[in-house]
């Protein structure tokens, strides 16, 4: 069983030096702290962006991408955007390399429920806030390339442009599941039939006008998965900004 180093992950988070970055512990579950990070500059009019990662503990590229994002210089983005970041929603799963939390709950299928500690913390953290855009970083063990789920009320579909940028890094996986609603090659719609059980549909219903779930293939190197996640984020911001 993999025991991933969450303490080291948290140490890198809290050692972020940027004056625009604020880190808060928003809860503790099974002795593991859950954090939110605010990244914003004082001046200007900002679009509000939510970044989430690590809801599935066996998909470490998400938290790693968040760290890479926070450790780079984002000064140019802070003129147009402010960010709220949930770097690792399921720390128990992250440490033990399990999709589910300690109680065997798939958090990304349980947002309709109450009384699940990690989910209550996430809901409490974002309650009453509106986001112009939300991206949720995942991995897929079976995928041959990157693919996306997207839902929007505003603007236009941005997945197709993102996949064109991703193709510079690696391939897109356009394989469709039985119930997938196609927007473009490798871009599928967040299906209204899912209800609110997942993070993305929940956020789309209550907190955001545009959401994306970014799935990267686990068989890529970690650096390649991180590059794909950050390319998706940067391309989305380019289009939305
Ligand atoms: Zn996942």
Topology:
Blueprint: H1 6-14, E1 21-29, E2 32-39, E3 47-53, H2 61-71, E4 81-86, H3 91-96, H4 117-126, E5 133-140, E6 147-152, H5 159-166, E7 182-184, E8 187-189, H6 199-206, E9 210-217, H7 222-240
Parallel strand pairs: 3-4, 3-5, 5-9, 6-8
Antiparallel strand pairs: 1-2, 2-4, 6-9, 7-8
Helix pairs in contact: 2-7, 5-7
Instruction: Report the bound ligands by name, code or SMILES.
Output: zinc ion
Principal-axes shape call: globular
| H and E string | HEEEHEHHEEHEEHEH
Named CATH topology: Aminopeptidase
Strand content: 15-25%
Helix content: 25-40%
Using DSSP, what is the number of strands? Answer: 9
Task: Output the radius of gyration.
Answer: 17 Å
Write the CATH homologous superfamily.
Zn peptidases
Give the integer mean of the pLDDT values.
95
Model description:
- By secondary structure, the chain is α/β, with parallel strands linked by helices.
- The chain has a single domain, classed as Zn peptidases (Aminopeptidase), CATH 3.40.630.10.
- It is 29% helix and 24% strand.
- The protein has helices at residues 6-14, 61-71, 91-96, 117-126, 159-166, 199-206, 222-240; strands at 21-29, 32-39, 47-53, 81-86, 133-140, 147-152, 182-184, 187-189, 210-217.
- The protein has a 9-stranded mixed beta sheet, with helices on both faces.
- Strand 7 and strand 8 (187-189) form a beta hairpin.
- The protein starts with 5 loop residues before the first helix and ends with a helix.
- The mean pLDDT is 95.
- It binds zinc ion.
- Residues 56, 59, 138 line the site of zinc ion (ZN).
């Amino acid at each position: 069983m993999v025991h991933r180093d969450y303490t080291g992950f948290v140490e890198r988070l809290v050692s972020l030096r940027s004056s625009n970055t604020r880190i808060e512990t928003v809860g503790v579950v099974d002795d593991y702290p859950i954090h939110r990070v605010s990244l914003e500059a004082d001046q200007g009019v900002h679009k509000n962006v939510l970044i989430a990662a690590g809801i599935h503990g066996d998909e470490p590229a998400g938290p790693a991408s968040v760290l890479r994002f926070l450790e780079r210089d984002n000064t140019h983005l802070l003129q147009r955007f402010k960010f709220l970041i949930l770097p690792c929603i399921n720390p128990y799963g992250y440490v033990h390399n399990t999709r589910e939390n300690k109680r065997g709950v798939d958090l990304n299928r349980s947002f309709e429920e109450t009384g699940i500690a990690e989910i209550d913390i996430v809901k409490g953290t974002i309650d009453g806030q509106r986001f112009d855009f939300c991206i949720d970083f995942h991995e897929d063990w079976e995928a041959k390339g990157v693919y996306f789920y997207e839902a929007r009320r505003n603007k236009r579909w941005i997945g197709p442009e993102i996949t064109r940028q991703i193709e510079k890094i690696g391939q897109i996986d356009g394989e469709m599941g039985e119930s997938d609603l196609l927007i473009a090659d490798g871009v599928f719609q967040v299906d209204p039939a899912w209800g609110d059980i997942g993070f993305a549909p929940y956020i789309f219903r209550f907190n955001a006008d545009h959401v994306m779930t970014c799935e990267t293939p686990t068989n890529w190197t970690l650096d390649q998965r991180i590059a794909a996640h950050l390319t998706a984020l940067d391309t989305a911001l380019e289009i939305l900004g």
